[in-house]
Structure formats: C-alpha cells, structure tokens
Design a protein that fits this description.
The complex is a heterodimer of chains A (67) and B (284).
Chain A (H helix, E strand, L loop, with lengths): L2 E2 L2 E2 L8 H7 L9 E5 L2 E3 L14 E9 L2
Parallel strand pairs in A: 1-5
Antiparallel strand pairs in A: 1-2, 3-4, 3-5
Chain B lengths: L30 E3 L2 E3 L3 E4 L6 H11 L3 E8 L8 H8 L2 E4 L7 H15 L3 E4 L12 H13 L3 E6 L3 H9 L6 E2 L13 H10 L5 E3 L5 H9 L4 E4 L1 H4 L4 H21 L23
Parallel strand pairs in B: 3-4, 3-10, 4-5, 6-7, 7-8, 9-10
Antiparallel strand pairs in B: 1-2
Amino acid sequence: MITLNGKCSDVAAGETLVAVLARLGLQADAPGVAVAVDDEVVPRAAWASFAVGEDARVEVLTAMQGG
Amino acid sequence: MSESPSPTDASVSSGASTPTTSLDAPTQDTLTIAGRRMRSRLLLGTGGFPSLELLAEAIAVSECELVTVALRRVDPSARGSLTDVIADAGVELLPNTAGCMTARDAVITARLAREAFDTDWIKLEVIGDEDTLLPDTPELLRAAEELVDEGFVVLPYTTDDPVLARRLANVGCAAVMPLGSPIGSGMGIRNPYNITLIREAVEIPVVLDAGVGTASDAALAMELGCDAVMAASSISRAQDPVAMARAMRAAVEAGHLARGAGRIPRRLYATASTPEQGLPEFGS
C-alpha cells in the first residue's frame, strides 16, 4: 500500500508522480512543490517518468507560513 | 569608583566589526550574507500572520528583503498562495527546516526546499525540546556540516553559545542566528553578554533570531553588534502586525545607527553636562 502525505492512498504501484500529484490537484509544473519518495528527493524533471513502487511513502510538500 | 560599569551593561566591549554607518551615506551601508547584499537588516518570519493580506502589508512596511517559509505537506483545500505573495512583494524567500528534530530530517527537508524553491539558502533549525523549542546543538552542528558540504548556504538557528557559534562558522555557515530567548516567548535578549561574545567570536554575520518581543529588543540586538534581526511572532502576533512591522524596521535602523555612533559608557555617578566654570556665587 502506498502512503501519500501520511495517509493510506489508492495510488497503485507503477503510477507516475505526475499522476500522484494530480490527485492532490497539482499540475506537473506546479511551482514551489517538492516530492520525496522514501525520504529521497525526486527532482522535478523525473516526475513524469518516476513510477511509484509497492509500499512507497510519498511526501508532497510546499511552502507554508512559518519561521 | 565612579567608572564601574553597571552590571547590566553588556555593550562595554565593542567587537572588531563595529559598523561604519554614516547618516550622510545610509545607502552605502548594506548587509551582506554569502555575497548577497541587502539594504534591510530586518528578516521577517511569515509564521503566525492571521492572513496573507496582512503578511503582504507587513512585508511592504517592514521593507525587509528576506522572508522565511516552512515546508509542509500540500493541503489541497488551502486558499491563496504564500509563494505568490512573496513573489509579488519582490522579496527573497528563505526556507527553513522548522519542526525537524534530527539532523537527518533537517538535511532531507533542506534538499526538498532546494528542489521546491530553487534556492541553496536554508535557515537550519534542529529542535531538541518541544516545550522550549531550543536547538539540539550536536544535531545542529552535524546537519550544518553536511549541508555546507552539499553546497547549501546555511543560516543556523542556534543557542546564544559563542563556542558553538564559532564551531558553526568554522564548518562554513554563512551566518549564525543565535536566540535571544525561546521562539515566540517575547522575552527579549536574556543574555546580552553572550550576544556580544558571539559578535566577537565570528566574522560571519550575526542575526538575532527568536525571543524578540517588541521594538526595543530589536534595537538592543543591533546595539550589541548584531548585523540583523529576525522577527516573526513579535510582528505577526502583535495586536496590529503592520504597525509593529513599521516599529521593528525603525528599531533595527535606530539600533544599528546607535551601534555605529558609539554609546557613552555607563557610570554609576552623574557626569555634569554643563561646565562648572563661570558658575556665579550667591551670598548665603
């Protein structure tokens, strides 16, 4: 099962990060967004080709007020 | 005996980096961190503002050029874009690692911030205690070293420990950001002596971070020789954040000018400002 931002998701193994981002309402060129899969940063350029693996933990982050 | 400095005097010793501010040429005086020159010596934290509109207004009146943001999970229901507000204001964004409690988490967060915002700058925070939000200093130093090695411009939020500040400078940090007192406490600068010692201990810019409660705290930081002040809660949670942003801007400037002007020493007894010569004698 793939975890998306800390929650169980119905993302299937093999989906690309672009497809995952779409579930959060984000375009593939969304500015100010970063993605980590299993604690590793996936560069923006690789979002379209990166396929999410079984039991992956995906974190999709953006700017929030703070500091 | 009349020369004894008061025990509250932490500004008796001036560091090697006394600013050269001149009222004749205020625009010549800039803050430089990692080669980036800024006219403003006030950094603004974006946390705690009741609305993005108030944040935008506070950025404008504070005249700051660098504002911090945190990195959090995307919230599909969030309204308005913080990055748009910052871009529209024409200021630079300084991502932080707020909330991280290990060097490992802070390093991953910094890498994500670089990817998200296309900046190598990172305000490094590694928190060691949830009640005081004080830094976990061994983890902080470890993370700083690693991030410098990865090419980041590292600005660590640190304790007011001059030895640690020197260690952070030695591993290649671009500035140090010592606390005056715990984040959001508004307790001001609890140990001004240490801030003075930090100013003398490092060549890199010193940015007073955390604890500022009101304008006089920011002015004191600058009088102690800090190169800049970072203010967040003191502005965003003030009753009138925009008015406080204006006050902080003026306080930072006043403190910096006063530092350059060189204050008089503190004395226990009075020193007459009017000469005694020519004082008439009256019969009594």
